[in-house]
Amino acid sequence: MSMKGPRHVMHLLDAADLSGPAKTVLNSCRFTDDKRYSKSVVVFGQGGRNRYAEDLVGRGMRVHLIEEGNSSRFGKIHTYIKNIAEIRRLIVEHRVDLVHAHGYKADILGYPAAKMTGRKIVTTQHGYIENSAKAVFYRRLAIAAAKRMDRVIAVSDGMKSLLMKYGVPAEKVVTIRNAIVSEDYAERERDLDLLERLHLTGRTPIIGCIGRISPEKGQRVLCDAFMEIRKRFPKACLVFVGKGPEMEELKCRYGGDGEAILFVGHQADVKPFVSVFDLHVLPSYTEGLPNVVLEAGCMGVVTVGTAVGGTPECIIDGVTGLLVRPGRVDELARAITLVLGDENLKDELERNVMDFVMKEFDFRKRVEKMLGLYDELLSDANGKG
Fold this sequence. Notes:
Blueprint: E1 7-14, H1 20-30, E2 37-45, H2 51-58, E3 62-67, H3 73-93, E4 98-102, H4 104-116, E5 120-125, H5 133-146, E6 151-154, H6 157-165, E7 173-175, H7 192-197, E8 206-210, H8 219-232, E9 237-241, H9 247-254, E10 261-263, H10 271-276, E11 279-282, H11 291-298, E12 303-306, H12 311-314, E13 321-324, H13 329-341, H14 343-360, H15 363-384
Parallel strand pairs: 1-2, 1-4, 2-3, 4-5, 5-6, 6-7, 8-9, 8-11, 9-10, 11-12, 12-13
């Protein structure tokens, strides 16, 4: 462990691009006072280029890339054992004081490595996908690991309730909500060049949906709702920003209608897209606390979302946006049409959401809460030592 100077926290994360959890880790490192904690990030890779690791290095952060590779089940177990040994080596060699894991893979690799070296370990539970037997298995792994951690950070009160429902001891769980660096998402003029490149000039309204294109995100429900919305707004356009396992199927089923529904793939920087949206929609079946709602809100774009997980904690129904039940095409279509068809309501929601996000979801305050938790854990460790 560090004997003098700032203590060292090592983040563990499985990421290849700038997902919500990846942004949280990046900004946590950005705003952690170097005099208080030094920090490093272990990123698990699958071979090939890892843009997230490159981004971290470009920002001057200390990064360790551990390649996992593709292998058979038994070969993967051997790889996991090697990775645990590598994390253990990094902890000892770099005098890490505390390990902070993000995601099930980081949890199951980080926990044994931390305990073998006598270090404290905290995990952040960002959310779960449970749309397949494999996904449920991974969620069970995450919960099994969480029960053994020294502390568990839930990104919303909704996530905290879910963790306790699954048997994680209440005394281990603390809510530290996701947050946003507001100056990174300052209100901006519409990106007219982007509108031209996407052939959207003159189309209105433009409805956006940002996120992984996967069954748990509910994009199919939004596509069906959009068919109803176009009866009221025939020039409306729906733009999906993101990639995922359902993208090709949705493109084949819904993407053949001229320029009405666009799939633009993953975008490292979503701000230009948010700038052209008249409304953002989040039709998910499950969420931790969606960063994208904060990003859109900080730019003055309202979200119509589903009342799941931590979403009601960042969308106040009728005040900063609208909430509907998940999976309800009719409710989603009505809510979207209501906002787009009432300019006074839309203006009021846009003003409210900017004020709300900037006041309640400041990232620097989140980091202070997180560092306070680190201090508490390390104080306990020193006291017992």
